[in-house]
Amino acid sequence: MRTFLSLSFSEKDQGLTLRSLHFVKACYPSTFIQKNHTMTFPIAPPGNRYFTSRRRLLKWSLVGLGTTLLTSVPSSLMAQTSRSLKPLTFNADDLGILNFALLLEELEAAFYPAALKSGKITAPKEVEYLTAIGGHEAAHVKFLREVLGSNALFKTSDLNLNQTGLSALLTDRSTILNSAVTLEDLGVHAYNGAGPSLKNPTYILAAGSIVSVEGRHAAGVRSLLGRPTTEPDSDRLVSDADLMASLNPFKGRAYDELYTPKQVVAAVGSLNVLNNPINGTLVA
Amino acid sequence: MNHALNQMAHSPIETVPPQLQPTKEWLDRVGNALLSLIIPLRSAALILLLSSGFLLLAPAAPSYAQTATLTPQQIVEYALTLEKLEADFYRRAIGAAQTGALRNAPQVAKDVLVSYGGDEAQHVTDLSAVLTSMGGNPDSVMIPANPNYSAILGRDPFANPADLLMAGQYVEDLGVAAYKGQVQNLVAAGDAGKTVLAAALEIHSVEARHAAGIRFLRQTLLGADVRPWIKNASSVIYNENRPNSIIPFGSEAFDGYATREEVLALVKPILMSAPQPTSAPSPRSTAPSTPEDTTIRALW
Questions:
Q1: Three-state SS for A156?
Q2: How many domains does chain A have?
């Protein structure tokens, strides 16, 4: 009985996190982050009745316990849970690349509200940074969905986040900020890696417009941590030896190397934040 | 400031041969004029005003960042020019941080100068090798022995940490926009542009990290109202807003680009030799109203 309750918590939790992305998009419409406007970032995400009531009911602090207990759930039940997961199939073409970028943006856009909601980020400057960055990621999601239109392969609600993996990124301030650096650095390498494969010139300009903002995010959060703003080679999730030579004329500290989509999928997998299976020619 | 900037940014540039001046820009202008005829009457006056401003000031390319098609080799030569300037800029800043007017700058800022300066020097080395491999000559890509860095702010940028960081922010943000402005040319070059495109992408986001790092220092050390990202379009010296593009460059979540014409117009005054080394204490830096200075303050 205890086990079933935990499983139930976990499933609702996944829904909660995914809905929270919609919440961010609602709170930070693109007009909110227009340049040339005087902006006042809220110290914390504005209150939301849905959030507070869910929080009261579900007690986020139990998530860790619940997900720990998940390991004792019979495998038949686990199989039942994963059977409904939508596979994400990315083709090796412009639409596949844009959808793949959308997936990364969705993950980033889900991370920041969760990070803020954890209550572990308290310094006003850090709250402001994560709030702004989360707003940017939501704007990237919105833009990519507008460009893709009916060619979007999945809805936000199709994504099934791994709460155990996500919770592990949110345990304390240091873990949260360092996880943000990992996500942003990975995003930079992923966009760079996708660039040479894009055929549509408008798409590559858009990707360029986004990737430098991801680089600014990485540098900004690295600065909060007192870490170097450029990425030392030792921080990379893909080592020199594994970099694809044809994609990387230069290597080293002075460069943000290009990762293949397959390498990005492996890196995302190592973060253990997404349950959906990923396949398709783009990532093969 | 923006008005003056726009005037400078779109003044005629001798360095771009007439044959490279495209007809697309003219077509875009016609397109803008036509667009202004079919907009709702309610906002007609305003938009007509804006679009006539475009006719005078802005290239206004809807989706394409480019008004001139450059070959991969031309792009490497252009990038190498900018990298040589950046590397030289940091070299002088590091010198001033060791023994000159910047010696009392906070250590965190000095560390950044050394780190970023090393990156730019690496970019010069590696782009030079690429240019050689393409049959070009990196030594023919020259900057003056003493570039006129006072053109950036209208005063010596190496005289104090605040000015150094502001000039550094302008230079780095412009570098990001300059690389972004070439990605479409490199895509258009097909396989011939693939290696240079990958190289440009590898550099482009590092320049963004530099810009963000300097912006963070300005916010943290100086209390400047800037963030690592471009919160306000007036914090950069190129044109961030491209209202006719489907890409929402006006949003701080999207960085803008600059064409080579726009970048060279901004950089040209720096490429004029300074009458004396810019890093040396100079009466000019405290007297910015001399006729000499008013003619070179393109970035102001």
A1: helix
A2: 1
Residue B111 Cα, gap to closest chain A Cα (Å): 10
- Statement: residue B300 has pLDDT above 50: no
Mean pLDDT over all residues of chain B?
Answer: 79
Asked if B209 has any chain A CB less than 8 Å from its own CB, the reply is yes
- Distance (Å) from the C-alpha of residue A35 to the closest C-alpha of chain B? 5
Which has the higher per-residue pLDDT, B209 or B2?
B209
Contact indicator for A102, A155 with CB cutoff of 8 Å: no
Closest CA to B203 of A257, A240, A235, A187: A257
Q: How many CB atoms lie within 10 A of CB A23?
A: 18
Helix spans in B18-139 (H): 24-38, 44-57, 72-99, 107-133
- For the stretch B3-22, pLDDT in tens is 333 333 333 322 333 333 33
Interface of B with A in 267-286 (CB under 8 A): none
H-helix or E-strand spanning residue B104: none
* Band (B89; pLDDT cuts 50, 70, 90): very high
Average pLDDT, whole number, for chain A? 80
Over 60: is that where the pLDDT of A37 sits? no
Q: The dihedral of CA B194, B195, B196, B199: what is its sign?
A: positive
What per-residue confidence (pLDDT) applies to B230? Answer: 98
Write out the residue range of the structural domain in which residue A198 sits: 2-283
Q: Please write the tens of the pLDDT for every residue from B232-258.
A: 999 999 999 999 999 999 999 999 999
CB pairs A-B closer than 8 Å:
208
Check CB contact under 8 Å for B199 and A250: yes
Residue A32 and residue B45: Cα distance in Å, rounded? Answer: 27
Which of B202, B216, B232 has the CB atom closest to A256's CB atom? Answer: B202
Interface test with chain B among A35, A177, A184, A257, by most B beta carbons within 10 Å:
A35
Helical pair B72-99 and B161-180, crossing angle rounded to 10 deg: 170
Backbone dihedral angles phi then psi of residue A279, each to the nearest 5 degrees = -150, -170
Residue predicted with more confidence, B27 or B95: B95
Q: Does B43 touch chain A (CB under 8 A)?
A: no
Average of pLDDT values for A36-45?
Answer: 38
The A residues from 118 to 137 touching B (CB cutoff 8 Å) are: 129, 132, 135-137
Instruction: Tell me how close the Cα of B292 comes to any Cα of chain A, in angstroms.
Output: 33
Beta carbons of A253 and A231 less than 8 angstroms apart: yes
- Using a CB-CB cut-off of 8 Å, the residues of chain B touching A228 are 115
Distance from CA of B284 to the nearest CA of A (A): 33
Placement of tokens 């340049």 in the chain:
A35
Nearest-CA distance from A33 to chain B in Å?
6
CA dihedral B282, B287, B288, B289 (to 10 degrees): -150
Q: Say yes or no for a CB contact (<8 Å) between B255 and A212.
A: yes
Mapping DSSP onto H, E and C, the string for B151-216 reads HHHCCCCCCCHHHHHHHHHHHHHHHHHHHHCCHHHHHHCHHHHHHHHHHHHHHHHHHHHHHHHHHH
Longest dimension (CA), chain A: 58
Distance (Å, rounded) from C-alpha B235 to C-alpha B300?
12
